[in-house]
Design brief:
Shape: globular
Helix content: 40-55%
Oligomer: single chain
Strand content: 15-25%
Largest sheet: 7 strands, mixed
Strand order of the largest sheet: 3-2-1-4-8-9-7
């Protein structure tokens, strides 16, 4: 019996809660896609981001007091864990009953869906995804965001910005830098990028709103997105 093909999907919090309401219609379509892929002998680690929920909590706290950086992180961590519990709930029959809170502790499970959230201050959910990749020996990470491709510079500010379809970790890390802080808006966190390079991971960044495109990638078909791997 062959082993299932493993994937990590980092699901941005802005996809789960784009504004003030949970996008249950999107989650219903996402669930259907994953269930179809499970039939093709695939296994998924789903990492939920904090997104809008985290931002609203941090904004509210900052209106009352000057919030400390570690508290800002914890609000993001707990927001992502709440979103992770939501994802685990909709995959109740397929998912491991616990969510991953510490990606360095291996959970023995025969389930083909495992859900994770934030870990500890100083680390983003992108970094959690790379640590899960290390712990469970997964080679493919899919980062679902709100962009179709990574660009060489901000396309909103520079009309001549060029989209990047394939790149190596060295060049990608020049784009995102080497420092991370809560709320940093980069295609893939700089610290996670460093770890992904060390692990020689393939990370694909694509627009999570286009689930048909995600299906194409999982089926080995041509797709829209930026592939980062190797040198």
């Amino acid at each position: 019996m062959t082993k299932p093909q493993n994937y990590i999907i980092s699901l941005g919090g802005s996809l789960i809660i784009p504004n003030d309401e949970i996008n249950w219609q999107y989650l219903k379509k996402f669930r259907r896609l994953i269930l179809d892929q499970l039939k093709a002998d695939k296994r998924f680690f789903l990492v939920a981001g904090g997104g809008t929920t985290a931002r609203k909590y941090s904004q509210a706290a900052n209106k009352v007091v000057k919030i400390a950086p570690d508290d800002l992180d914890w609000l993001g961590i707990h927001s992502s864990r709440l979103n992770a519990h939501l994802i685990r709930t909709i995959f109740r029959d397929q998912a491991h009953p616990e969510i991953i809170k510490n990606p360095t502790i291996h959970m023995d499970t025969d389930k083909n869906v495992v859900v994770g959230g934030g870990w500890k201050p100083g680390w983003s959910t992108d970094y959690v995804a790379t640590m899960i990749a290390q712990e469970y020996e997964v080679e493919h990470v899919i980062n679902l965001t709100n962009i179709d491709y990574v660009y060489d510079k901000d396309p909103a500010r520079y009309p001549d910005a060029q989209k990047i379809k394939k790149t190596g970790w060295k060049d990608f890390r020049k784009l995102v830098g080497n420092k991370w802080k809560p709320g940093l808006n980069t295609p893939f966190d700089p610290i996670a990028s460093k770890k992904a390079e060390q692990l020689d991971l393939e990370v694909v960044l694509m627009n999570g709103n286009k689930l048909a495109n995600l299906r194409k990638y999982l089926n080995g078909e041509n797709f829209q997105g930026t592939v980062i791997k190797g040198v």
